[in-house]
Specification:
The chain is an all-alpha fold. It is about 60% helix and about 0% strand. The protein is elongated and about 175 Å long. The protein starts with a helix and ends with a helix. This is Nebulin.
């Protein structure tokens, strides 16, 4: 697989002054760590001069004097005792107010009474307040509130599992409506449906023609000598104008 490449490597010659080679050399010089620290290494070989009056030493001493707490407070120390207006600090309202504020803000003095008396309090472990606090802590504790259930593993052929599956199948809506799937997409006529039959029965009940039979449609033979017929004839003759 590499025989052809190995043969070409010995016959290819690239000129050293091509742009690609020059760019690669420039990039190698930029990323070279040896060239990056070359000036520093040469400066270390020459040694250094550490005189007491050197500029870096004098600069360091000046910086130390500026940052020194003694130099920082030197002006303040010189001005002590030269205040004008009050002989003592207690007579100055601002100093008195500052001292009072310092005492109020002093955390050690603020908690001194508590630290002196906290070791003198004795509370029995079975006190009602302690028991109530423990019960309250138990109620509001998230650790005791969340109790994860055990992950049970049941065999698929157990009787209770089989019974549960049958109950799920009976309650399942998909299984409940599975016998109607074959009706989906089939055409249906309303003739003979429950609503149509109910409407026809209601129409027959409300039909006046079927509810009442006309007298002329009834086949009968009237007897002429019945008492009511004879009485009707007599009445007709009495009220007749003729």
């Amino acid at each position: 697989y590499t025989e052809a490449w190995d043969a070409d490597k010995t016959s290819i010659h690239v000129m050293p002054d091509t742009p690609t080679i020059l760019l690669a050399k420039a990039n190698a010089a930029n990323v070279s760590h040896k060239l990056y620290i070359q000036a520093w290494e040469e400066a270390k070989k020459k040694g250094y001069d550490m005189r007491a009056d050197a500029i870096p030493i004098r600069s360091a001493k000046a910086s130390r004097d500026i940052a020194s707490d003694y130099k920082y407070k030197e002006t303040h120390e010189k001005q002590k005792g030269h205040y004008i207006g009050c002989q003592t600090a207690q007579e100055d309202p601002k100093l008195s107010w500052a001292a009072r504020a310092m005492l109020l803000q002093n955390d050690r003095l603020y908690r001194k009474a508590y630290h002196d008396s906290k070791a003198q309090v004795h509370i029995p472990v079975d006190a009602m307040s302690v028991q109530a606090a423990k019960e309250c802590q138990t109620l509001v504790s998230d650790v005791d509130y969340r109790q994860y259930l055990h992950q049970w593993t049941c065999l698929p052929d157990q009787n209770d599992v089989i019974h549960a599956r049958r109950a799920y199948d009976l309650q399942s809506d998909n299984v409940y409506k599975s016998d109607l799937e074959w009706l989906r997409g089939i055409g249906w006529l309303t003739e003979g449906s429950v609503d149509v039959v109910k409407a026809k029965k209601a129409q027959e009940l409300l039909n006046e023609r079927l509810y009442r039979t006309r007298p002329e449609e009834m086949k009968f033979t009237s007897i002429t000598d019945t008492p009511d017929v004879v009485q009707a004839k007599i009445n007709a003759l009495q009220i007749s104008d003729v």
